[in-house]
Design goal:
With 228 residues, the chain is mostly helical. The protein is 69% helix and 6% strand. The protein has a three-stranded mixed beta sheet. The protein starts with 11 loop residues before the first helix and ends with a helix.
Length: 228
């Protein structure tokens, strides 16, 4: 059985992978945000074309502030693109925008993992808020007393992260296919878009690994407290 001083080792893999994933994303995105698309399309224009070709003429594409704050909101059925990707006419901007449009295509096709993730959002939001309190209360009460709650809370978070992976990879697959098929980028540009989307996907892998090791951490604490 692990002694308390050894439990912090559970956080190292997720922390290191998370740092690497963020560095990889910043480096790759930065590189291809300086490579203009040969078609001259902006991220918003590429996403608009993908949506229109799929019959989603009424779906809004809105500009939002922040860096890489791009997302698809299934409840509002709208795409939200950061200013740099809304207006940017680069491989990075078009790749990210197309990825978000890929989520809209998933929604239209009733892609099962997307609907599972949507169903998990409310309980995951509660679990994420609870995770903060577990960390705070654990400092005063001891983690052993919070172990069962920790297993439940981080089990929910891990499940959400696990379901998120196929959703994100599939959205990227749809994006790359549509960009080339619709002529929004040239075939030789696909490699650059793929690198940007792969780097972004790695951040989700890192999130899943971190939540997994945190879950294992609380499972070990729970097992240890049961033996006492």
């Amino acid at each position: 059985m692990l002694i308390p001083d050894q439990w912090w080792w559970f956080f190292i893999p997720g922390l290191l992978l998370g740092l690497y994933a963020q560095m990889k994303l910043n480096s790759t995105y930065g590189r291809y945000s300086r490579v203009p698309t040969e078609t001259g399309l902006s991220g918003a224009e590429a996403a608009r074309e993908m949506l229109d070709r799929a019959g989603m003429h009424g779906m809004e594409i809105r500009e939002v502030g922040g860096h890489l704050t791009d997302h698809y909101d299934p409840t509002k059925k709208a795409l939200f693109l950061s200013s740099e990707n809304f207006h940017g006419r680069t491989l990075a901007a078009v790749g990210v925008a197309a990825h978000e449009a890929g989520h809209a295509l998933q929604h239209q096709a009733a892609y099962a993992p997307l609907h599972i993730r949507m169903a998990l959002v409310p309980v995951t939001r509660i679990a994420s808020n609870a995770a903060i309190w577990i960390s705070v209360l654990g400092m005063f009460m001891g983690l052993a007393k919070m172990a069962l709650i920790g297993v439940i809370v981080f089990g929910i978070i891990f499940l959400f992260q696990l379901v998120t992976l196929p959703v994100e990879y599939d959205a990227s697959r749809r994006a790359k296919h549509q960009l080339v098929q619709l002529g929004l980028i040239h075939p030789q540009e696909n490699a650059g878009v793929s690198r940007v989307l792969s780097a972004a996907a790695l951040t989700y892998v890192a999130g899943m690994v971190a939540s997994l090791f945190t879950l294992l951490h609380f499972i070990m604490i729970l097992r240890g407290s049961d033996r006492d």
